[in-house]
Amino acid sequence: MDRVASHKSAVQYLYPPVEPFDRRMLDVGDGHSVYVEQSGRADGVPVVVLHGGPGGGSSPAMRRYFDPNVYRIVLFDQRGCGRSKPHASIEANTTWHLVADIERIREALGIERWIVFGGSWGATLALLYAQTHPDRARHLVLRGVFTMTQAELDWFYGGGAAAFWPETWARFVALIPEAERGDLIAAYNKRLFSGDMAEEIAHAKAWSAWENALATVQSTGTGGDAPADYARAFARLENHYFRNRGFLEKDGHILNHMHLIAEVPGTIVQGRYDMICPPASAHRLAARWPSCDLRMVPMAGHALSEPGISAELVGVMARLADRH
Length: 324
What we know:
Helix content is 35%, strand content 17%.
C-alpha cells in the first residue's frame, strides 16, 4: 500500500533536493532488472529506502528525509514498477524475490549493515527482510505499519474504511457487478489481468484512486487521476500481492516471527487517523517488539507527505545519525 502523494505539504521539514551520485540497473535474475540509486555521502551511514505499494516506485522526495552530509541514501524501484523492467510484470515477482533483491543490492554496493526505512508495504517488506537477515539491519524505521494480515485487507477492501468514506467506496465498487462484490480483490484481479488494455487501465485507475483518496487526514475523498502507466503497474502489482496474501505461509506471519528481530532496534511512526493502515497494527507490532519505540502522530493519516509524519521521520533520522 501507499501511493506517494504530493510532498508540498511536507517540504518545510525536508532537506534540500539532492541528486544521486550513482544510478544503475541491477540484473536480479528471472528476466528482471531493478533501478538502484545512491545519493548523499558515499562513505556515510547507509540507509535503504523501501517504497510502498507494492508497485509504488521510489521518488526524488524520498531522498530528502535524510541529511545528505551524514547518510548514504539507497533508493530502488521494486520489481515491475518505477524504472525497473519489465514494467507491470508479475512474473517471478513475490515478496521473497524482493527480500532477495534487497540482499543483492546490499552486496553489490559493498554495504555490511544498514538502516532499513520503509512505509506501508515498505514497512511490511522491511520487517520481512530483517526477519530473514537480522544481522544486516542496524535499525528499522517504519511508517504506516502494514503487516499483511487478512484483517488488514478486509479493513480496506471489505468495507471497514468504507464506513468512513461511503461515497468514495461507492465509486470504487461501481465498476464491479454486484454479484462479485463479496471479494473485490478477486474481482479487480480478473479485470486488471484481462488482456484488454483499456479495461486494465480503467480498473487500475479506480483501484489507485480508492487508496490515494484516503491517504491524508485532510482528504476530500477524491483520489485524482493517476497516469495510466503508473496506475497499471501499481494496481496490478498490489492486487497480485494482496490476492496471494503477500506470499506468506500463514496469516499473522510477521507477528509470529517477531522473536527473530527482538534485538534489532526499531522506530515506528504512525498516523493516529491512518485510514489505510489503522494504528491497531502498529500497536500490535510494538507489543511484540521490546526494542521498538512507537511514535503516534496526532492529526495525521497515512501518507509520507503528511506534515506531522514528515517532521517526525526527519527527527528520527537526525537522532539516529548521532548514534551511528
